[in-house]
């Protein structure tokens, strides 16, 4: 994961309290999913600040425990450890 601390974090989409159509969701309550596209990949973030506290956590990878047969079918030819080991592989 990567955490983005909002307006003071130069790497955050909300740096400097930027409010755009894309970042508006970051200003909502914690727990909301914020997705965006980068280099043809859809990335997943979870808003972690409260309302009007635009903070988020990027989910870079995960370890699946359910749905493995379906994942294997959809990711044919790849090793299981490579199914979800990058931010662009989760969608």
Automatic annotation (TrEMBL):
UniProt keyword list? DNA damage, DNA repair, Hydrolase
Superkingdom of the organism of origin: Bacteria
- Please verify whether the record's keywords include DNA damage: yes
- Please provide an example of a Pfam family that matches this protein in its UniProt record: Pur_DNA_glyco
Question: Which molecular-function annotations from GO does this UniProt entry contain?
Answer: alkylbase DNA N-glycosylase activity; DNA binding
Q: By its UniProt entry, which InterPro entries does this protein fall under?
A: Formyl_transferase-like_C_sf, MPG, MPG_sf
One biological process term from GO is:
base-excision repair
Residues annotated as region Disordered? 70-91
Residue spans of biased composition, Basic and acidic residues class: 70-82
Q: Which PANTHER family match?
A: DNA-3-METHYLADENINE GLYCOSYLASE
Q: Which family does it belong to?
A: Belongs to the DNA glycosylase MPG family.
Q: NCBIfam families under this entry?
A: 3mg
Q: What is this protein called?
A: 3-methyladenine DNA glycosylase
What is the native source organism of this protein? Tetzosporium hominis
């Amino acid at each position: 994961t990567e955490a983005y601390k909002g307006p003071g974090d130069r790497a955050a989409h909300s740096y400097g309290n930027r409010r755009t159509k894309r970042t508006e969701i970051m200003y909502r309550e914690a727990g909301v999913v914020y997705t965006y596209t980068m280099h043809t990949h859809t990335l997943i973030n979870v808003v972690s600040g409260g309302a009007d506290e635009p903070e988020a956590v990027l989910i870079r990878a995960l370890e699946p425990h359910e749905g493995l047969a379906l994942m294997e079918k959809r990711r044919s030819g790849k090793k299981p450890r490579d199914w979800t080991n990058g931010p662009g592989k989760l969608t």
